[in-house]
Amino acid sequence: GLIEYDLNVSFWSDGALKRRWVGIPASARVTFDPTNPWTFPVGTVIVKHFEMDLTEGDPNTRRRLETRLLVRDANGWQGFTFKWNSAETDADLLAGADSEPLTVNLAAGGSVTWQYSYPSRTDCLLCHTNAANFALGLVTRQLNRDFDYGAVIDNQLRTLNHISYFSTDIGTA
């Protein structure tokens, strides 16, 4: 299954709210490194979901925008962007980049409209590069923080270690 996580410092994405998950094959493990990028097994899936409050600070106006997948297969990493339909009931895989005007009502009054961009498959790999080991946020410095898993709040590194996500025991973090 997928495990939700969050980052210490998230990248700015036009003010979008983001949620993230990662999944690895049941018999696979991640190679942990305390200071360098981790190594992920073939079959890893990283998910990032984007939503936007169309009235700033009002979750009742929240709209699903996109869900991105980064998948590691035998040939490397592949990026995929799914754009949610206007009913927010389904998302379609984009064949290429896309954009749409997005208007947000500001809490201080007025509104702002801009072109919200959806990346193409190749756009994903402009940031998720070999030099960064592709999985940008899944590193020790970004995940060494508490996360609310619903039934428990715990340090993410300790949690991943506890469920044997890593190829070696990293201790209590």
Q: Explain this structure to me?
A:
- With 173 residues, this protein is mainly beta.
- The chain has helices at 121-127, 140-143, 156-162, and strands at 3-5, 17-23, 45-53, 62-73, 76-84, 91-93, 98-105, 111-118, 146-148, 153-155.
- The strands form 3 sheets. It has a 6-stranded antiparallel beta sheet with strand order 1-2-3-4-5-6, with helices on one face. A two-stranded antiparallel sheet has the order 7-8. Strands 9-10 form a two-stranded antiparallel ribbon.
- Strand 3 and strand 4 (62-73) form a beta hairpin.
- The longest helix has 7 residues, at 121-127.
- The radius of gyration is 17 Å and the shape is globular.
Strand content: 35-45%
End-to-end Cα distance, whole Å, is 23 Å
Shape: globular
Number of strands: 10
Which residue ranges are poorly predicted, with pLDDT under 50 across at least 5 consecutive positions?
A: none
User: Into which percent range does the helicity of residues fall?
Assistant: 10-25%
Strand order of the largest sheet: 1-2-3-4-5-6
Compute the number of helices: 3
Largest sheet: 6 strands, antiparallel
- Provide the residue-averaged pLDDT: 90
Rounded to the nearest angstrom, the radius of gyration is: 17 Å
Reconstruct the topology from this structure:
Layout: E1 3-5, E2 17-23, E3 45-53, E4 62-73, E5 76-84, E6 91-93, E7 98-105, E8 111-118, H1 121-127, H2 140-143, E9 146-148, E10 153-155, H3 156-162
Antiparallel strand pairs: 1-2, 2-3, 3-4, 4-5, 5-6, 7-8, 9-10
